[in-house]
Amino acid sequence: MKFLKLIMVLVLLTSCGSVVNYDYEKTTDFSQYTTYNFFTDMETGLSDLDNKRLIRAIDDKLQAIGLQKTDNPSFRIDIQSEEYANTQNSNFGIGVGGTGRNTGGGVSVGIPIGQSRLGREIIIEFVDDSKKGMFWQAVTNTDIKQNAKPQQREADFVALVEKVFSKYPPMR
Questions:
Q1: Residue 24 forms part of a structural domain
Q2: How far is 154 from 57, CA to CA, in rounded Å?
Q3: Whole-model pTM above 0.85?
Q4: Longest dimension (CA), the chain
Q5: Each residue of 138-160: pLDDT tens digit?
Q6: Which residues, in sequence order, are bridge partners of residue 8?
Q7: Using an 8 Å Cβ cutoff, are 144 and 83 in contact?
Q8: Hey, is 136 helix, strand or coil?
Q9: Cβ atoms of residues 49 and 90 within 8 Å
Q10: In a domain, 14, yes or no
Q11: How many whole angstroms separate alpha carbon 11 and alpha carbon 140?
């Protein structure tokens, strides 16, 4: 019984996490990309504070995997994001009906369950200006915690970046 409860808790925790989808140019030699920087004119769609948090988390992660931030990089990073309302379409139907010998009828009422939540799609792209253009992309969708304190927002961005870059460079 305890094992079943543990499984249920793990399923619940993993189902609430962010989802990351990747795409990359299959002919790319990722070992040639050792330096990076961000586009200076990028419009992330984030608040200034969240933008700084995300860039700081990306810097820390990329430097931890051996990349260096320079003014003359081998690739640049572009970040875009957009908020969306994640509406719940779950319904619980209550039906009342009756049948007689030759008659029948029924009524069904849909009661919406749950509430809509805000989500954010964040797109991170690696772009080689000199050769190929975009060669790697990660698209993630995550829930937005409206009343999160700054420390929680920082931790959320760090966790998101860890998940996004867990499969970088891609294995062929």
A1: no
A2: 8
A3: no
A4: 84
A5: 999 988 887 889 999 999 999 99
A6: none
A7: yes
A8: strand
A9: no
A10: no
A11: 19
